[in-house]
Amino acid sequence: MDLFQYKNGVLYCEDVPVDSLPAKGLPTPFYLYSANTLRLHYKKIYGAFEKLDPVICFSVKSSNNVHLLNELAALGAGMDIVSGGELFVVKQSNADLSKVVFAGVGKSDEEITDAILSEVGYINIESEQELARVQELAGELKREVSVLIRIQPDITDEKTNEKTRTGYKGAKFGIDYANVETLIEENADHPYVKIRGLHCHIGSPISSYTFYEECIRKMVGLTESLKQKNIILKVLNIGGGFPANYMDNDNFSWESFAGPIIELLEPYVKHEGFKIILEPGRSISANTAILVTRVLYIKQSGDKNIAILDAGMTELIRPAMYNAFHFIWPVKPEAQHLLANRNYPVQQEGLTTYDVVGPICESSDYLAKERALPPLQQGDYVAVFTVGAYGMVMASNYNLHVRPAEVMIDKDKIYIIRERETQQDLVRKMIRQEL
Asked: Which of 24, 236, 288, 392 could join 388 in a cystine, given CB atoms 3.0 to 4.6 angstroms apart?
């Protein structure tokens, strides 16, 4: 699952004991990444779908540090972006811009223009009006641009959190499936905007390959219908939303997940020259990082034991926003509480049940509720696992907390890849300037 393992009584990231980092003067909380876990997960995904020769466009919104993007670009990854800011960061990386897909429902004129001039691989079109605006801007620039039409397939995985479902009828994403064929027919011959294929994304995480199969069949059906009208589409972007293992016994298997999708798409790749794009995010990045935090105080409130950490919803908002589960365990537990695996509930004696909370002035500021953990003491270092996706990218300055450092380990090498903010950073952009 990842290269965070307990050895010699302490949690290691690759070849480095995690407790050695605060000892070097690195203040908690901080995000700690394993470079080789990142590489491993990319290779697993590509290997699982290799028969399709896919373009793997990493979802930058899940983890956007340029140094992590460089690691993926070195393996051949493209990038899936949703803003001008993400495009700017990708252009600072070593990524091949021809492997960039630009999604998002609300692209501004500036973002569309930047994408066209940067010659990104594809712009994903999310509405009829957006297509018209891309046509206008491409015409003004006299530059050709390739686009994919994002369909709204009316597919919902009920196991997906309601806040991260994107493929249902009435969602803000994509164009109603019933209207897509006519839209493509009416716009197939534009001199600058070339419709190359279809895009779909149905939510995250998706629990079964069957939802992808249903969506792909709709996409393929559209391409076959349009082919009868001499409109040839050759690109299918089946999106992302692939799950990650938040515990060892989640047992997500790329081989079993990819097999039915390959069986469905391989004939189109081999015999009709289809190009397949995938947009994984959390399935690559989630397991690559932990959040290292420190126990500030232990208190009792009524019948509850409360562990107050120096990290909370400003560092990791997923538990507060999505009620998301993250495995939590001390960095250096007592010998009887060392772990052979990360499954919950933990089958050990002598655990104490805590609400694990942060320092933020909100009742929703928690990382776990009623979680059985080894007895914690003030000053203990604690690891929050599987935070490489939608962790640091959603960190905030609420309550004017500074955002944490990001650290990457590659075997025994330690790199600071994002400095911890300072309090001066909090006021640097606060100006009073008459317009």
From this structure: 288
Query: What are the angstrom distances between the C-alpha of 109 and each of 106, 133, 208?
Result: 10, 8, 37
Q: In whole angstroms, what is the distance from residue 161 CA to residue 323 CA? A: 9
- Is 361 labeled as catalytic in the residue annotation? yes
Among 199, 218, 253, 270, residue whose Cα is nearest residue 48: 253
Q: CA 362, CA 426: separation in Å to the nearest integer?
A: 20
Q: Return d(Cα 378, Cα 395) in angstroms, integer.
A: 24
Average of pLDDT values for 164-188? 80
Read off the amino acid at residue 94. N
Distance, CA of 283 to CA of 246 (rounded, Å)? 10
- Beta-carbon contacts of 202 under 8 Å, excluding residues fewer than 6 positions away, are 153, 155, 156, 157, 165, 166, 167, 211, 212, 215, 239, 241
The answer to whether the Cα torsion of 416, 422, 426, 432 is positive or negative is negative
Query: 36: number of CA atoms within 13 Å, CB side?
Result: 13
Mean pLDDT on 370-394: 98
Domain 53-284, CATH: 3.20.20.10
Q: Which of these, 8, 75, 90, lies nearest to 40 by C-alpha position?
A: 75
Average pLDDT, the chain: 93
The residue assigned the tokens 């232990």 is 298
Domain limits of the chain? 4-34+288-427, 53-284
Q: How far apart are CA 83 and CA 107, in angstroms?
A: 7
Check pLDDT > 90 for residue 235: yes
Asked if residue 106 lies in contact with residue 131, where contact means CB atoms within 8 angstroms, the answer is no
pLDDT 10s digits, 383-433: 999 999 999 999 999 999 999 999 999 999 999 999 999 999 999 999 999
pTM of the model: 0.94
How far lies 356's CA from each of 256, 295, 404, in Å?
A: 36, 10, 19
Tokens standing for 61? Answer: 């919104």
Class of 4-34+288-427 in CATH? mainly beta
The catalytic residue among 13, 57, 215, 361 is 361
Give the three-class secondary structure for 115. Answer: helix
pLDDT in tens, 334-352: 999 999 899 999 999 999 9
What pLDDT does residue 243 have?
A: 78
Cα of first residue to Cα of last residue in the chain, in angstroms, is 54
Examine residue 205 and say whether the peptide bond preceding it is cis (omega within 30 degrees of 0).
Answer: yes
153 has a pLDDT exceeding 80 = no
